[in-house]
Design a protein that fits this description.
Elements lengths: L17 E2 L4 H11 L3 E6 L2 E7 H7 L11 H7 L4 H4 L13 H10 L4 E6 L2 E7 H11 L1
Parallel strand pairs: 1-2
Antiparallel strand pairs: 2-3, 4-5
């Protein structure tokens, strides 16, 4: 009989997060430094939104200019706050949710990451990359 593994076994627990009062330059720096595509936005440990690298690209020229050219991004980033750009209607899952259920959610929805929340507290994040790596290990 096959065991149903919980998402906690594949989620990232070392969470890189933003706070609502951080700026978009900080967000871009975190995306690039950690080579990630999704960052939860938190108020203390409670998730209030999710910012994706795609959200940032929609309002800027983040990768369209030379990596030393920061004037364009800075100007655009100063026009918006993280709260204005982040997704606010967040779907989350508890850490005991099955990997299968998480895969079904991500396959049906238009996002590629889910925050993992237990008792209102952000405890991890699971992405489509985590799922693909899990599936590769199964083969």
């Amino acid at each position: 009989m096959r065991t149903i593994e919980p998402v906690s076994s594949i989620m990232s627990k070392d969470i890189i997060a933003l706070h609502r009062d951080d700026d978009l330059e900080t967000a871009e720096l975190l995306f690039k430094r950690h080579k990630i595509r999704h960052i939860p936005v938190v108020d203390k440990d409670v998730i209030i939104g999710m910012l994706s690298y795609t959200d940032l690209l929609r309002i800027s020229f983040a990768d369209a200019v030379d990596s030393y050219e920061t004037d364009v991004d800075t100007l655009v980033y100063n026009m918006f706050t993280i709260e204005q750009v982040m997704a606010k209607n967040i779907v989350s899952v508890p850490s005991n949710t099955s990997i299968k259920k998480v895969a079904e959610l991500l396959a049906k929805r238009e996002f590629h990451a889910l925050p993992v929340v237990d008792k209102g507290i952000l405890v991890g994040i699971v992405t489509t990359t985590d799922l693909i790596n899990y599936l590769l290990k199964q083969l």
